[in-house]
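Please check this record.
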Amino acid sequence: MRFIVLTISLVFLIGCQPEPARKLTEQERVADMYWLFSKFDHNYAPRTLKEKLHGFDYERLKDKYLEEAKADQENPEFFQLMHKFIAEFKDAHTSGSIQISTLPGRSKIAYLGFSGVRDGKNLVVKKILPSIRTEDLNIIEKASAYPIKEGDIIMELDERPLFIALQEDILPYRNLGNDESNKSGLLNGLFTRYSHKTPMPKKDMALLKVKRGKREFEVEIPWVTKDFVTFREEQKEAIRKKAARASGDSEYDRDITEGQFEILKTMTELISRGLISFEKITQILSTEKDFSKIQTAFYQNMEAYDVRDNFRLPQEEYLWPMIGMFEAYFGAATDEKEKKTPFEELKEKRFVPEDSYPVEKAATFPAYITFKKNEAGEREMIGVINISTFNPVGNADDILKEYKATLKHFADFGVKKLVLDLIDNGGGSLELGYKMSQALTTKKIELAKIQYALNENWIDNFHSSSLNAAGDFEKEIARRTYVELNDQRDQGLKLSKPYSLHSLYPFKIVENTELMIDDKPWEFEVVLVTNELCASMCDIFTAMFSDNKLGKFIGTQTMGAGGNVTTHIQAPNSSLVLRQTESLFVRTNDEKSYIENNGIKPDIETEIMNERNKKFQPSMTKAFEVLVPGPKETEKTEEAEPETETLAKAN
């Protein structure tokens, strides 16, 4: 049954109408705006909250955008108008996307040729487009003179600091609802523009202020504007040639048929809509060469639509995930290097102290034990777990079992201090996240509450569970919730009363009885480290961690994407697909506050947004210091040797 559901989902998505070629009429534009309004009228859970937070009148807002839709305009202008309406709600989960046609002549892309990551007020270049030849091949085709290199720091665009440019060019069309999250999550949008999303650049040339090492300089480079279909084909071919050069085989024939190419493009669409994770797709493509097996694995790993369990942030960009998929596919045949361990991969993106010893069996969430001297000059052990997503590849039960085994491993060694690294965690499975938080303690934790949008999605979910849940007790709980939600809707309410998460997962959130040593509960002293890109389930996990006083939270305020997401396909004329928040999470702290647009504030704030090039060493070091305060400067202590032999033997 699951395979049938997945197959239907894929076929349905492929069969969706792409953006139209002809200019939409006024009547068609008005019809699409009414379609968009209807979704916010009947499905959008935070609507009243947003009016209060952002100071607008919803009905007047609709009138304003309807009048603008009636004005004569080209299709891209109308698509941008729809994105502007959605951005008014400043919601990380709520966004629109236009399915790009496979035919040329409809969408354009304008690009400067690089992408990167935020570091403080700037952007550090991490990737150059495959079609830009920067390497010296020592053959007829020489290296490109492209002036931007990996590692360059981009400081200004057209004599504007990047954050000013972001405010002017991008945020009117996409807004995550958190200032720091916008800066970290949307900065790449300045350098790659899509005609169906944001306006094309007004100038032919872009003036960049660049820092390379200690040298600062200005460089003017052209905006390259192309038909998107042509551009996509060029990048695919450039990646294929790059793989051929890497393999040393000029006859390299690992190619993609037209049908396979269409499937890869569809995967990219699904990633951008949050229906499947980029991590899952790229892992499949990088480890499997047989395309029929790739397609089977894709079906198996794609999440069937479930209104209960879509708590992750969608991929904001279309281009770079697509390139990542092509690189993973073509690179699989040429990667002769020994596969890195999860711990080795972790060390490439995080600061890890030298005297650290990995937990070998921690594959999904890399973990290690390190040491720090306390005030008495004695070494204490600290356990560290990197939780990069709540949507990892693999079976959820097996992943939870592995996570619990890591905690037990720490306890067996006498580790009482624990750091949870959730930096850049974009969310995932609500059920897995709640079970992982409960696994930290043998005590029963208090779950956050949820308010459901009183729409067909949620009511149908509980109706279905009342008929098909695992057992009689689960069916009865679902039946009662179903009846109550109907009653509340009949009263004219748009949002339900707060419900415990047990209404979604009855009897599934239980204490970690395995966390026992000598028949006594083992309790950790925990520090959680995360940042402004902690979203959705990561927001919820951090809220529950703080509200249950499971430890200290270090870093910066989380994004504030506090609800599930439902995908609505699609506006009848423009082909817009809408992702929308359809629940609200209520915290259990004294403030009784919503997570949405508020996020969770840290106990100890750090400048973690400035630390990416340092692998977040300052914040991680601060976490270690909070758990194990170091010796006073006036004291001199001898270095104690780490328990190398014991740890190595256990691993």
The longest strand covers residues 205-212.
